[in-house]
Amino acid sequence: MQKNGYLDYKEIIAEKVGTVLVETGLEKEALYALIEYPPDEKLGDLALPCFQLSKLLKKAPNVIAQELAGQIDPTPYFAAVKATGPYLNFFLAPEFLVKTVLEKIVTDGANYGSRTIGGGQNIVIDFSAPNIAKPFHVGHLCSTVIGNALYKIFEFLGYNCIGINHLGDWGTQFGKLITAYKKWGSAEAVEKGLIKELMHLYVKFHTEAEQDPSLEDEAREWFWKIENGDEEALALWRWFKEISLEEFQRVYDLLEISFDSMAGESFYNDKIDAVIEELKAKQLLEESEGAAIVNLDDYGMPPCLILKKDGSTLYATRDIAAALYRKKTYQFVKALYVTGAAQSLHFKQWFKVVELMGYEWAKDLVHVPFGLVSLKGEKLSTRKGRVVLLEDLLKTAIEKTLAIINEKNPGLLQKEEVAQMVGVGAVVFGALSVNRIKDVTFSWEEALNFEGETGPYLQYTHARACSILRKAGLTPGADITFVPDKLNEPAALRVVKMLYLFPEKVLSAANEYEPSIISRYLIELAHSFNGFYHECQVLVDDRDLQQARLVLVWAVKTVLATGLGLLGIKAPEQM
RNA sequence: GCGUCUGUAGCUCAGCUGGAUAGAGCAACGGACUUCUAAUCCGUAGGCCGCAGGUUCGAAUCCUGCCAGACGCGCCA
């Protein structure tokens, strides 16, 4: 693994201990994996539990710890190496830590934490993917912001990301919509109500269809017409799509998210026949109950449906066609699909089909699932009209932020811009702060909470740091020199230790496709900084002390901004 | 019925590739603004880590079974 020059204490410890234990033939990697962070800072900063070594050395763990403590030369990295029972505990030498970490951050600036491990290779990230003619609601938030964060994180690690918005712009729902439009809609009403009117028609279709099932047949017929090039049907389809895209764009503008490709489902229509032919040629297709399937019994999965009995395609077919196209077009080393966990089986199935087609890169297809968003414990449902529009949520968050600014900092310039950054940041952070896989119940109260572990908390911390730097007249990018020994208070050292962890956290977030690792980390970093802020006055008479503290403040500000950036959140200088 | 995921403080969650006394935030209570932004900080209280077995020197973490919830299981995506 390429270290990109980051200080790595685990590696140092593995090296030192490995040298002492060289006769045992123990691999340094094995030692590295054993090293952990103690639960209490009083015990030390890093620890090597000696239980497992005990088997190898045939000695009691506490004896091993004791002996190792005597044989390891701590300088210049450690202030002390102590055995505490069966643990070998390492206490970091403050000067070395402070000097190495802060100088690295000063040198790297906004690139601190980045790496070159991606080597410019392509990663395709399929995310957001709202359905045309349906509202962009809070249920789409997760895919959109998780995908965007992964995009930024992998770019930061040296990959070239291709963000694809696989729009739901095809399928039977358009038949339903056209049916509803013909029966109860009008051009005027749609022009006026836009997506809300389309949604209204869609909801009406479903309520009416419960009484009159023949509507479903009519809808299928209209979709058949779309697929077979009927001009009237296609024109309506294009119109609905246009209206939807304009509305989606407003949300993406608020979030400041963009895509490299907007190739939705319809884009693959002319690429599907070839896939069917290939599946046939490879003898993977079977006929079952009139439909064409790929049997997956051998893999403990239900069959993957490829064609309906009327010959039209299904989404697995489309996904396979899209994957083949993307591999050919982008030569990806990884393709991520950020969608709800409910689709896990679907992805497992078609990934397997791609593998059975003989493509070794099937292993590079990754489903990144996330939990279900519900509303007061009930499922979101476009059909029943039970949704919270994302645009409404963002707008409300921005309004609330503006109100808070007017109350707390009425003299602030560019209130609107800041309110947007903070309001949107609160919503985005809310979606990124917990493990992807957790189901969430949307609540206005929680989404609009700006205190505690929230986006605004991080932004506020950043703004405070900026404020100190502004008052001190320290300009970013300036040649910053400082006396590391001056940062010797526990509160300051805690902050430096948090800064040290950033590169490691970014890497974990990428490896686990889990932006919340960065979210949690930033909360801890901000918390340690706020503790320092309260305990230590930065602008003091002692020039060396002030300078050292300013560098720390600058480093925190920089890492907070970088981390927030990776999550797709802005870091205002004032708020 | 089968499968996947989730279950940790009143609420929302970290911790889950096994390690030292299980951590945060919110809510509650009590403190800290003449000093760099109190959207902050400090403290108090709050836990059969769903239940029961097993593996291990050691289990919130791994295995098995059970319970509860969510989701999925052929012509929607």
Question: Could you characterize what this model shows?
Answer:
The protein has 575 residues and is of the alpha/beta class. Among the domains are: 9-92, Arginyl tRNA synthetase N-terminal domain (Gyrase A, domain 2, 2-Layer Sandwich); 171-256, no CATH class; 390-566, Isoleucyl-tRNA Synthetase, Domain 1. It has 20 helices and 13 strands. It has helices at residues 9-20, 28-34, 51-57, 61-71, 94-108, 141-156, 172-184, 187-211, 214-227, 231-255, 272-281, 315-330, 344-356, 390-408, 415-432, 444-447, 455-472, 490-511, 516-535, 543-566; strands at 46-49, 78-84, 87-92, 122-126, 160-164, 285-288, 291-294, 304-307, 334-340, 365-370, 373-375, 378-379, 440-442. The strands form four sheets. Strands 5-4-9-10 form a four-stranded parallel sheet, with helices on both faces. Strands 1-3-2 form a three-stranded antiparallel sheet. A three-stranded antiparallel sheet has the order 6-7-8. α17 crosses α19 (516-535). The chain is globular. The structure holds one RNA strand of 77 nucleotides.
Briefly summarize what is shown.
The protein has 575 residues and is α/β, with parallel strands linked by helices. The protein has helices spanning 9-20, 28-34, 51-57, 61-71, 94-108, 141-156, 172-184, 187-211, 214-227, 231-255, 272-281, 315-330, 344-356, 390-408, 415-432, 444-447, 455-472, 490-511, 516-535, 543-566; strands spanning 46-49, 78-84, 87-92, 122-126, 160-164, 285-288, 291-294, 304-307, 334-340, 365-370, 373-375, 378-379, 440-442. It is 54% helix and 10% strand.
